[in-house]
Structures are given as structure tokens and as C-alpha cells.
């Protein structure tokens, strides 16, 4: 079989950010609104610090207002909850993102529950996860988690209509696996959620025309687990020891093997990663418009 098409998430994300910048300009012109996104970072996780820097830069590049709160690693629950209450009330802020993971002393679920669901641009609040699961639309449309939203955009761009396709999601996290499965179900796929304890995982994966790898284990999904011609979305970002003591990034899929079998595949880096931040910006525009009661653009 010919080599798989490489789905260029970096280019897709750049084009999406271009559409977002246009929409932000139009919203400013028409309604005098500047969408504002705040990122809250607790502690000094190096990977999180890189994400937060990239988010701030890209937020400003599309013409939105960027706010940041960096709190020390020993911040208490009450202090963080008080900050969220303040941000919920601030009219300059339309989107709130609390970077995960949070330090051990903080109850993550309680923090997510404290965010105003209308400003929950991560789509992690139970109101948003519930609306995604129960098919909320119009005034009760959910905000959708950014990573699975980015995966879905790339899938639809590559495949068109997904109706009836067998899809396997490997991974059951709240951030990716579960919302990804809900999104694919909404597109009328036949969805299987698999995970590290699934019996005969390779055979389950071989049933997939759409395979989403979101387990966080470097190159776990091998070439012979992939159905010939399948579309493979690799959500993994794993740093491993490379040659000469250097580290390098790999996904959850053994890309070298997969490329001669899959029909299309996202690379790591440059696949899903850049789409996540672009979708966060899109969600912030959506949230701003819904809060103001003006029509939200479609991305
Ligand atoms: N940590 C890793 N991914 C994410 C994400 O999408 N949102 C937040 N808030 N934290 C994360």
C-alpha cells in the first residue's frame, strides 16, 4: 500500500487561527467586544509553562485579550476558589482555563465545578460534558473540549461525512477519550472506547476505520494493529530518550510502522498539538458571542 497521507495539523491550525482572527475583527467592529481569555497556572510544571506561554502569544496574535495568573505550587484550595469566583464575575473575561494537572492539595473536580459553565472554554464542567452527552443545541449547546474538537475537525476535513464508520478510541480520560467518543457518536460513528485493560486490544483496533490513540504510552499502537487504509489520529505527546542522550517527542502510535498501512495519519509533533490551542481560541470566541447574545461564528 502507498504511504499514508500525513494530516498536517500545524497548517490546519494556522488556517483556523486565520479564520478566528477575522471573526475577532468582525465581532469588535459589529459589537464592540474583545474576547478575553485567562489562563490560571498553579505551580511550575515545565510542560505546563510552555503551553501557557504559547497560549498567551497565540491569544494576542488573533486579536483577543490575554490574562494570566501564576500561583505558587503551595496555593491552597480556598485561594484558588476565590480567584475563580472573581474571574467568573469579571466582564472582561469570557474564557477561563485552569491548567491541569493541579498540585495534590487541590481538589481538581471542585475547581472545575466552580468555573462558570458559560466561561468554561475547556468544556470540562459537568454542565458542558452533560450537554455534549445529551445532545444540547442552540441555547444549551455545550462548549467542547479542545483536543477532541481539533481531532474531529481534522477527521471531517479528511474524510467528510463520518456516518456509520467504525471508530475506536483508545483511552478513557475526561480530557480526551470520553469527549472524543461522544463527538464521534454525534457524527453517527459506531464507537468503541478501549483502554489499557481491554482484552485483545490489537484485534479491537483492527476493527477501526477511525483510530484515535490517546493512551499516553509511547508508540504502544503498532503497525499490525491498524486496519489497512484507516485514518489514525495520534493524540500522544511522549518525551522519550533518543540517540546521543537527547530527548525526542513521539506519539502513542509507532509511526514508522503505521505509515505503510494507514490511509492517513497525524504526525507527532505537528498533528493534534497545534490544533488544541487553536480550538481553545475558537471556544473563547464562541463563549464570548453566547455571553453577549450575538450569533457565534462557525469554524
Ligand atoms: N492539561 C493538558 N491538556 C489540558 C487541557 O486541554 N486543558 C487544561 N486545562 N489542562 C490541560
Outline the structure in words:
The protein is of the alpha/beta class. It has helices spanning 9-31, 46-61, 77-89, 108-114, 126-134, 146-159, 177-186, 201-206, 255-258, 272-292; strands at residues 5-6, 36-42, 65-71, 95-98, 166-170, 190-194, 210-213, 231-234, 238-241, 247-250, 264-265. The chain has 2 domains: 30-122, Leucine Dehydrogenase, chain A, domain 1 (Rossmann fold); 146-273, 3-Layer(aba) Sandwich (Rossmann fold). The protein has 10 helices and 11 strands. A hairpin with a 5-residue loop joins strand 9 and strand 10. The radius of gyration is 19 Å and the shape is globular. The model has no long low-confidence stretch (mean pLDDT 97). The site of guanine (GUN) has 9 residues, from strand 4 and helix 6.
Keywords for this entry:
three-stranded parallel sheet, 2 domains, alpha/beta, Rossmann fold, binds guanine, globular
Amino acid at each position: 500500500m502507498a504511504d499514508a497521507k500525513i494530516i498536517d495539523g500545524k497548517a490546519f491550525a494556522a488556517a483556523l487561527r486565520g479564520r478566528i482572527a477575522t471573526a475577532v475583527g468582525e465581532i469588535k467592529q459589529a459589537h464592540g467586544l474583545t474576547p478575553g481569555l485567562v489562563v490560571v497556572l498553579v505551580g511550575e510544571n515545565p510542560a505546563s509553562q510552555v503551553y501557557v506561554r504559547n497560549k498567551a502569544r497565540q491569544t494576542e496574535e488573533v486579536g483577543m485579550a490575554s490574562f494570566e495568573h501564576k500561583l505558587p505550587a503551595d496555593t491552597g484550595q480556598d485561594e484558588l476558589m476565590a480567584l475563580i469566583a472573581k474571574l467568573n464575575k469579571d466582564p472582561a473575561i469570557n474564557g477561563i482555563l485552569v491548567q491541569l494537572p493541579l498540585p495534590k492539595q487541590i481538589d481538581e473536580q471542585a475547581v472545575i465545578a466552580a468555573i462558570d459553565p458559560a466561561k468554561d472554554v475547556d468544556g470540562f464542567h459537568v454542565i458542558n460534558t452533560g450537554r455534549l452527552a445529551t445532545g444540547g443545541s442552540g441555547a444549551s449547546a455545550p462548549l467542547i473540549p479542545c483536543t477532541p474538537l481539533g481531532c474531529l475537525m481534522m477527521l471531517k476535513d479528511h474524510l467528510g461525512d463520518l456516518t456509520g464508520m467504525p471508530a475506536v478510541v483508545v483511552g478513557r480520560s475526561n480530557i480526551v477519550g470520553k469527549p472524543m467518543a461522544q463527538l464521534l457518536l454525534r457524527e453517527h460513528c459506531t464507537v468503541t472506547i478501549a483502554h489499557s485493560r481491554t482484552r485483545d486490544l490489537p484485534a479491537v483496533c483492527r476493527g477501526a476505520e477511525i483510530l484515535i490513540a490517546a493512551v499516553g504510552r509511547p508508540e504502544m499502537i503498532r503497525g499490525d494493529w491498524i486496519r489497512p487504509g484507516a485514518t489514525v489520529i495520534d493524540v500522544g505527546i511522549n518525551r522519550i530518550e533518543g540517540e546521543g542522550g537527547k530527548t525526542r517527542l513521539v506519539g502513542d502510535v509507532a509511526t514508522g510502522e503505521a505509515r505503510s498501512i494507514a490511509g492517513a495519519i497525524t504526525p507527532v509533533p505537528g498533528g493534534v498539538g497545534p490544533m488544541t490551542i487553536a480550538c481553545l481560541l475558537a471556544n473563547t470566541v464562541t463563549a464570548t458571542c453566547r455571553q453577549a447574545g450575538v450569533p457565534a461564528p462557525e469554524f
